[in-house]
Design goal:
Elements (H helix, E strand, L loop, with lengths): L1 H49 L2 H8 L2 H34 L5 H13 L2 H13 L7 H9 L7 H25 L4 H8 L4 H12 L1 H16 L3 H6 L10 H10 L3 H26 L5
Helix pairs in contact: 1-13, 2-13, 3-7, 3-10, 4-7, 7-10, 8-9, 10-13, 12-13
Amino acid sequence: MTDTATYRTTGTKSKLKRRCADLPFFLVMSGISSCFILLIVLLLAADLMFTSFEDFRAAVMKPEIQSAFRLTILSCTIAALLSIWVATPLGYLLSRYRFPGRLLIDTIVDIPIVLPPLVLGLSLLILFHLPFGNWELEAWLRDDIGFPVTYRWPAVILAQFSVSCAFAVRTMRVTFDQINPRAEDVARTLGCSRGQAFLQIALPQSWRGMIAATTIAWARALGEFGPILVFAGATRMRTEVLSTTVFLELSIGQLNAAVAVSLLMVAMAVVVLVVLRVLGTGLTS
């Protein structure tokens, strides 16, 4: 009994020493982390303290802002759906296969993520208006197809899609990396083609990742500003979305309205992040 009590006492003292030794580590790590968290909380608190409910209500009741809200919901949703439509096969190919040029394609996919937003918008504008002899993409779409893009609502969707799709591809690649390909290999030995193995085995297992990728793409499209401003413009009741609304309200000195719209976007982003946390946390389950 004495030896047991001595062992327990010694073990308790050792644990206390380890905890005391670890205390500076946790204090430093927690202090650094708390600085960033405090900054985000202070930013949100400053916005809430700056405006009032009456200012917020007056801002969101403006016809221009309501139109921008509707276009934002529509464009972000379309951009997110297009993103997951492209990201699923591309993420699967990058995850499962090693082929010539794979590294180059992997690098190209990341370009919209690291490229300055204004440069991306300018590149889209040049692409649609660059003359190839007597042929121009925007003129062809406008005159022959009857579907102009530049400085109209399709340009908003294309600008959002160009950036959000890259994030969706990254998410889907990680998703397929975490899915064991053994079941697909077994299905192929039993007579399934590659397409059948993908549709019947891999795709059903990736549904959580697809939800996460779609949510991330939607949230990224919501915050897009630079490419939209350059490629689609910021024409009220036409190509205005919430991100450009903040810019327009600031440019005419309506700071209260700009802050109100910012809070509306924060609320939308919080909802999206909650959905991502609830439905997208099971990537590894």
